[in-house]
């Protein structure tokens, strides 16, 4: 059996042995103590390596034997330092695993407490009563929605009328306004003199209501006839 196995097997306290093994807290405390001890050993070895290296530089070629001895010691210290690095890595891994295990144990324990509490809370609950309660809540929500809809609808208070009757009344009013406008139109008076027998001899500006063209058109036609007579006389 290795020394490390003997250390972990026989290094526990009497109380731990009586309980059948150390608690996670005790094991974590031991691992941290070991890490601290190995860290101090690392610092010591690093100091010795620097010292032996300085001795080897000091002797150099003047005293080769002393320089070589110093380098040999430095190599041994470096080997021990490398072993301690590996040991620290193993202990760190073990400590993290133990911490995680302890955390998981506490989590499971607390989850068990919570499950027991939930079970105790649900002991006095009846699923049938819960269904009835939820049905009552749904019905009351429907009633509340109906009330809200009724309140939000526009109140008519007798304002509903037949649109056809309203349109017929509107058309009657429009017809009355049209008839009134026709009565207000003033027609020109009928002339008292008799009309001439020939339309060509009709006075140009006395009976404006019988004219198709204005008086200016009649004068222009007369001027054109005069011009045509002058041209005919000149051509003959």
Automatic annotation (TrEMBL):
Keyword field: Coiled coil, Cytoplasm, Endosome, Membrane, Protein transport, Transport
Biased composition (Gly residues): 9-21
GO CC terms in record: cytoplasmic side of plasma membrane; cytosol; ESCRT III complex; late endosome membrane; multivesicular body
Gene3D superfamilies in the record: 6.10.250.1710, ESAT-6-like
Membrane topology of the entry: Peripheral membrane protein
GO biological process assignments: late endosome to vacuole transport via multivesicular body sorting pathway; protein transport; vesicle budding from membrane
Region (Disordered) location: 1-25
Cellular compartment(s): Cytoplasm, Cytosol; Late endosome membrane
Keyword Repeat annotated: no
Main location class: cytoplasm
Pfam families listed in its UniProt record: Snf7 (PF03357)
Entry similarity comment: Belongs to the SNF7 family.
The protein, known as: CHM4C protein
Organism per entry: Ptilonorhynchus violaceus
